[in-house]
Write a structure and sequence with these properties.
Elements lengths: L5 H6 L7 H20 L12 E8 L5 E8 L5 H10 L1 H11 L7 E6 L2 H12 L2 H4 L10
Parallel strand pairs: 2-3
Antiparallel strand pairs: 1-2
Helix pairs in contact: 2-4
């Protein structure tokens, strides 16, 4: 009977990304941020729009990259993701000039809702209903 190494046992059933996926995702995120900041994208919805590539998640085989984007200031994240999806072939071509992979990953764009979630939690924590349940400092009285 053949034994498996301990490192493989710890990964069975785990959905956590590997170090390789994390490094590749960060490399793609930085390269996309550079491309967007210095290039003029010819899509009318993206021409004068400021946004951030907040995270890139790579598939285990590094052939697919899910890029999470958020508009800076106020804006529609869904429309931003749709506009970036339209120009993903051009972005992928520019990305191939920046990074070297055996296979250039296929890009997909998703709106990043983590900032909205954090704002909702912050609003909830500062609501009067929650504030009345918190202990008051005697120094404030």
């Amino acid at each position: 009977m053949q034994r498996r190494s301990g490192s493989n046992k710890s990964r069975q059933g785990s959905n956590a990304p590997s170090q390789r996926q994390l490094r590749a995702g960060e490399l793609v995120r930085r390269a996309l941020a550079d491309i967007v900041s210095r290039s003029t994208i010819r899509d009318p919805e993206l021409a004068d729009r400021s946004f951030s590539v907040t995270e890139v998640r790579m598939s285990p085989d590094l052939r697919h990259a899910t890029c999470f984007v958020a508009p800076l200031g106020h804006g529609d994240a869904e429309a931003l993701a749709a506009a970036l999806t339209r120009v993903r072939a051009w972005l992928r071509g520019q990305l191939s000039k920046e990074v070297t992979f055996k296979f250039m990953p296929d890009l997909s764009f998703e709106p990043d809702t983590s900032f909205d979630n954090a704002e909702a939690i912050d609003r909830l924590l500062h609501s009067p209903e929650v504030a009345r349940d918190l202990p008051r400092d005697e120094d404030e009285d």
